[in-house]
Specification:
The protein is α+β, with helices and mostly antiparallel strands. It contains 5 helices and 6 strands.
Amino acid sequence: MNFKVIFFMMVSIILISCYAPFSPEKARNQIEKQIGAKPKETFEVKLNGAPMKLAKFVASEIADKDVNFAGIKRIDLAIYEVPQGKRVDFGGIDHRGWDKVVGLNGEKGSIVIFLRSNAKSFADMVIFAQQKQKVLYGRLKGNFTSELSSELKETFEKDGIGSLKDRLQHFDK
C-alpha cells in the first residue's frame, strides 16, 4: 500500500475518535443503559440535506421572503418517555471533543447543552433535557451564535420541555 493512503487512513481514524458521536439512536441507547429499560419514543424527526432544503423553500414561499432557519443546516429532535421516577444523568454522557456550555439540575428538570465550534462560529449543538417522564434529545448543526444556547436554557427554565420542543421546531423566530 501507498504510504499516503496509510497515513490518510490513520489520521482519519484518529480524527473520528476525537469527539463523541451523537444521534437519536445513541441518545436512546444511553437512556436505556441508565434507566435499565427501553424508553418509549414519542416523537422523532431528522431534517437535513434535501428535506431541509425543501423545508427552507416551502417556508420561504409561505413567508414570501428568504427563510434561512437561523443558519441551521440539520436538525435531529427526539422525545422519549421514561418510567415514572427514572432520571437520566446527563453528566454521565460521553462528550469528548464537545464543550459543555449549560448544565442545570433544577426543580422543573435538568438540561445540558454541548457545543462544538469551527474556526468562525458555533457549528454543532447537542441538547439533552428531562422533565418528569419526558427526555428530549436535540441536535442542531449549522452556523449560529452562542446566544442560541442561552435562549434555549431560558426557554426550558421558564416553560419546560414542551416549550423547548416548540422552540427547536420553530428555530427561525
